[in-house]
Amino acid sequence: QKAEWQKLKDQPSVTADGKKFLIAANIGTPNDMEGVKANGAEAVGLYRTEFLYMDSKDFPSEDDQFEAYKAVIEGMDGKPVVIRTMDIGGDKHLDYWDLPDEMNPFLGVRAIRLSLKNKEIFRTQLRALLRASAYGKLCIMFPMIGTLDELHQAKALLKEVHDELTKEGVKIGDYQVGMMIEVPAAAILADQFAKEVDFFSIGTNDLIQYTMAADRGNDNVSYLYQPYNPSVLRLIKHTIDSAHKAGIWVGMCGEAAGDSTMFPILLSMGLDEYSMSATSILRIRSEMKKINTKDLEGLADKAINESTTNEDNEKLVADFMAKYS
Ligand code: PEP
Ligand code: MG
């Protein structure tokens, strides 16, 4: 099976009836690029930049960040690279950054909230990103956006930094600006957010945790961590529909994007980009090749309207895929 998959390495990601989608890789550091290449990713769909901060003894300098972002962007040879601004807080801490203790860190000052409270640190990252944009196809992504105000603040700072660099004579390339959909509030208002960004990427790891009110790392409530729960799927479908209505692309970079049960449901909803750990890429590309999109008609509708449980949807997809085996 692995040998069969390997043949797909340099092939496009297409369904049995020739519909094309994008399969991308999630990375944590530029060192992960080897796996990205070896598995034939068509893009980097999520570069989690917080590791750059976590792996150093002090805040990484603008130049250090620039070099890391440039290495990934150049390494992809003109293919898209989605770089997410730092997602510190929650369970991710820095030894050199003394932040107040919080009762519920996952509901506290995390990701974009922390960046907006520490604009100088955020500004340094944005400068490094814009400088790197000259070397390929950069998509800048903000994590944990929950309100339009947060998005406006982040975009305003990005514009300020852009103008500042232009004044300094620094070359900036074309780049896209997008946001993660991982807070239920943002998924519900996806139609409003879609008018203000170039793309969405759905972060199911957090979207599931916040929708089900079940800590993603707590074994005692892992039975509530339900990717195929119709409530989660409704938020995903609304996000995808809203993106397409506004004419923007929408991807997924949570674990669910590389999940074989989730995959046919996402395909039936028309998700454009699937970003996953590099080792899942060839498996999903091979499943995509089996599926005829005409057969998918009605699957998403059943998954969100007829199914009432996570298990209903596991069965729905197993029955659906049985016709291809
Ligand atoms: C997510 O929440 O799905 C996601 C991709 O972000 P992270 O796992 O880094 O929180
Ligand atoms: Mg997340």
From TrEMBL:
Compartment annotation: Cytoplasm
Residue stretches making up the PEP-utilising enzyme C-terminal domain: 2-292
Annotated residues for binding of phosphoenolpyruvate: R48, R84, N205, D206, R216
Keyword match Cell cycle: no
Binding site for Mg(2+): E182, D206
Taxonomic superkingdom: Bacteria
Cofactor: Mg(2+)
GO MF assignments: kinase activity; metal ion binding; phosphoenolpyruvate-protein phosphotransferase activity
Catalytic machinery residues: C253
UniProt entry tagged with the keyword Magnesium: yes
EC annotation from Swiss-Prot or TrEMBL: 2.7.3.9
Protein name: Phosphoenolpyruvate-protein phosphotransferase
Organism, as annotated: Lactobacillus corticis
